[in-house]
Amino acid sequence: MPHCTDSKMTTDVDADEGMRRTAVEDDTNNIMLDVSEAVAKENDNDNDLEEVDMKAVDDFMSKEISELSYRDRYLIDLDVRGMNVLASTEPNELYLIGLEALDKQILLGMTTPSASTSTSTSTSTAKRIMDHQQQQMRYNYKYYRLAEKLISPMIKSKEFRSKFARANCFDPVKAANRMEMYLEIVCENFGNDALTRQVKLTDLDKVERDLLKSGCLQILPFRDSAGRRIVASLGNFGTHIHTPKNKMKVLTYVMQALSEDEETQKQGCVLLFWPLDPKYSISRELSRIIQVAPIRFSAVHFMLYDTPCFRKFGAWKLLALPKEARARTRIHFGSIHQCQQEVIAYGILSHFLPVTNTGNIKNQNLLRWIAFRQAKERASVLGIQFNGIDCPLVKDVLTGKGPHVSSNPANVVYRKIMESRFLEHRDAATADRKTVISREIVDKLVRDGGRFLMKKESWWVNGDRETAREKVSIAFRDMRKSFLLHDKKKVCTNSDTIRSTANNISDTPNTNGKKRKLLLYL
Q: Which range marks the domain in which residue 51 is found?
């Protein structure tokens, strides 16, 4: 009996805790409404409005952060900075267990009525707990069922399911719900046929392709220091001619393309929101896709001018984000250059961001990415293997010239290895020994998870080891020439210095008023 009593007390406490959290969420929603009204309220004094807005938002954000445990805050901060070790390493056991739990959750959801179909009015503790669990599981997977009826091989594939499992850190309930919401968006915007396959660029009409090419939404061609892909929302997403469906179709396609990268599946991606004008806004479609995309947004950065108008804008748009995204959002105020410098602390290379100092959007890299997607999808239709790579990993060594090559993290490591073995390679007695040294460097980089990539058209391709070895030999030759040229310039400089010094001495008069005669052996 005592055990049963303790169990009952524990159950009551859990139920009360669930009710308390629900009440807190209701209070939070009320605060959001109050803040929204404060932001939307017209006031002749902009300074007063700014003060009210920022104070309300600060109070709201402080309340949300205080509800998080110290551990949650610490883990979120690690994730924002790309230092989530568990996500980057991902033990195979965790991956397999997570997929198995997701499969069971989908099966359970398809056999359990959703909370909205429940008609019982029982108020017992057990019933309240069951209702709470059903509210978490909110869906009966209507669109997943439809995809099954259409005999969709996509939804059964491990590659497709792993995206959603990783997007929710292997939480089976959240992953299953995210998958259902994503399938709903795909079905509503692309039709039933899209439930059986990946969305393609050809599914977008001319208006939507033009929206994509405008550059207001770009997947950048480089990663941050943690290896995460970066998405930039620049300026206003769409104009008056673009319907919500046009925007959602473009967003869905971009997010699906982003989710094909396994490294980004594990560590999430980074969103840079750069409005450039306070009249621009986060569209509802972008806010929604953040919640349902088959990819996790591990960090969101607002980059705003430091003006009262933009501060009000930042306060208002911060509230437009989902709750989970708000905890991962960092706001940077200042000029374009200042904002670029601030994101360096988060591992983002500032000089490759597609915005000029005058606020113009650059889309050259975006057009290359679209060409890459067209080639990849064309090869898939023809059944041809396509080995193109649109964005190298942080451990990949790039061949070629330019700032994007010299600043690549793997190339920096590669140069240090080359410098450490340069003298050994230069002084090698035979050509065979030089070949062995070059091959050892290639083997080391490959063992560390890197590849030697070469540029082909608008994308990169992986070179074989022999080609990589030849590139290393050529690099040693160029390094030797560079050292010889440097030594030659140094000798010439020293000779000129000696001659200049000798001339000065020879022109110096002695105590008798006669010039010294020096014999210089140069």
A: 10-67
251 is a domain residue: yes
Span 462-507, pLDDT tens digits: 988 898 999 899 888 888 887 777 666 666 665 556 566 555 555 5
The C-alpha atoms of residue 305 and residue 314 are separated, in whole angstroms, by 10
pTM over 0.90: no
Residue 171 phi/psi, 5-degree rounding, is -85, 110
Structural domain count of the chain: 3
Residues 471 and 328 in one domain: no
Chain-centre distance of CA 87, in angstroms?
A: 13
CATH number at residue 234: 3.40.525.10
Q: Measure CA 323 to chain center.
A: 19
Task: For residue 214, give Cα distances in angstroms to 207, 235, 358, 458, 510.
Answer: 11, 10, 17, 18, 78
Q: Indicate whether 347 and 237 sit together in one domain.
A: yes
Tokens of 502: 């000798």
Q: Is the CB of residue 391 less than 8 Å from the CB of residue 222?
A: yes
* Kind and range of the H or E run holding 103: helix 92-111
